[in-house]
Amino acid sequence: MMALAGYPLGIECHLLDTRADSSGGQVAPIRVAELDDLQALEALAREADVITFDIENVSVAALESLQAIVPVHPAPAAVAVAQDRLSEKRLFDSLGIPAAPYVTIDGAADFDEVDTELGWPVVIKARRLGYDGRGQRLVDSAGELAAAWAELGERPAIAEGFVDFDCEVSLIGVSDQSQNLRFYPLTENRHADGMLESSIAPFVNAELQQQAEAWMTAMVRKFHYVGILTIEFFVTPSGLVANEIAPRVHNSGHWTIEGAVSSQFENHLRAILGLPTGATTTRGTIAMRNLIGRMPARAELLAIDGLHMHDYGKSPRPGRKIGHCTMVAADRNSAQASLDTLDRLLGSSTA
Ligand code: AMP
User: Fold this and answer.
1) What separation in angstroms does the CA of 133 have from each of 2, 138, 194?
2) Rounded alpha-carbon distances, angstroms, from residue 94 to 111, 219, 247
3) Ligand 1 mean position to 102 CA, how many Å?
4) What is the pLDDT averaged over residues 231-252?
5) Distance from the CA of 194 to the center of ligand 1, in angstroms?
6) How far is the CA of 235 from the centre of ligand 1 (A)?
7) Is 126's pLDDT higher than 70?
8) Which residues contact 159 (CB under 8 A, 6 or more apart)?
């Protein structure tokens, strides 16, 4: 999607991924290599004006060494934090951003503290390599903790107090190279089995919007961050509680392709290339629905008036995001109605 956004601007994206048939490889030249293959990465960097990435499980060491050849955005230090849930918690603490209480789990000796500090239920999350609900378990009682941790491979983890939230939202912002920020409106996100299923934007709440923007600004300043940054929050009766950060373009911002004046993908490219960023204003109320595990017939989707379809050209697999649809509506009720129509067509995507 970044390569597609760059094309009309005359920005050429050259990609590196582990498979030639990955989605990006279908629209831009691609090198096939492991993501920590320094030789391949350096060859790419020598031909490039800037290096970026759209997933966060990249090698921070490799990104750091590429900085000797070419600018790398966003900052590898921000990626390092996003890769480790404990570092992420410490970042939230250091910036005064409320987050769920937690206990670090390095061994069974830490279980007592989970019981005394957090109460039940808790969510245990592997510190590294967890996303889309992977690497985490909901644990209802002390007696179930050992088995749940074993299921995570007894990896270093954190146990998090369960947040009784009203809904989940994310803030996506873009920082240019002079640290000028623009923000998209908060987006409301619905998850199924820990994975984003649908989003509606804007989530209108001026107070929460302002609070989230202030926290993102602090984060951008801390890392001298350039590009798109995402923070996911729980909305609770006492305000926003941060869940996690994503130092990249984000699934909850896919709606910006059709629903905002400049999309997150275009703005990311503009920022990392030192160009002026574009307006983040919305074009109405926008609904986005992920296509997970199964690609419906094109004709069925396109029969829904106003629907924009994105097929990533990935082979379907249960639980795999293989595309998304966006609907730009006049108001929230119509956006919700479009999502309901899609839900009926798709059934439960996680079944
Ligand atoms: P994560 O990978 O941390 O984004 O978690 C995936 C989803 O699991 C979140 O979007 C929430 O729906 C749910 N979740 C994660 N942590 C918690 C928590 N501490 N309390 C309640 N729900 C949670």
Assistant:
1) 25, 10, 4
2) 25, 10, 18
3) 13
4) 98
5) 6
6) 12
7) yes
8) 102, 103, 105, 114, 118, 122, 123, 124, 125, 139, 145
Residue from 120, 123, 167 whose mutation best tests the ligand 1 pocket (most atoms within 8 A of CB):
123
Residues with beta carbon inside 6 Å of ligand 1? 100, 123, 131, 133, 160, 162-163, 168, 191, 194, 232, 243-244
Task: Read off the pLDDT of residues 10-56 as tens digits, 9 standing for 90 and up.
Answer: 999 999 999 999 999 999 999 999 999 999 999 999 999 999 999 99
| 164 Cα nearest atom in ligand 1 | 21
Find the angle CA(191)-CA(192)-CA(194) to the nearest 5 degrees: 75
Confidence of residue 347 (pLDDT cuts 50, 70, 90): confident
Does residue 72 surpass a pLDDT of 60?
yes
Atom of ligand 1 nearest to the CA of 160: 19
Q: What is the tens place of the pLDDT at every residue in 138-186?
A: 999 999 999 999 999 999 999 999 999 999 999 999 999 999 999 999 9
- Which backbone phi and psi does 72 adopt, to 5 degrees? -120, 120
Residue-level pLDDT at 135: 86
Contact 196, 147 (CB under 8 A): no
- Per the structure block, which two tokens stand in for 41? 């990465």
Tracing tokens 């595990």 back to the chain, one arrives at 293
From residue 43, alpha-carbon distances to 2, 37, 62, 146, 264 in Å are: 21, 10, 12, 46, 27
Q: For residues 29 and 14, is the Cβ–Cβ distance under 8 A?
A: yes
Pocket-testing residue among 193, 243, 244, ligand 1, by greatest number of atoms within 8 A of Cβ: 243
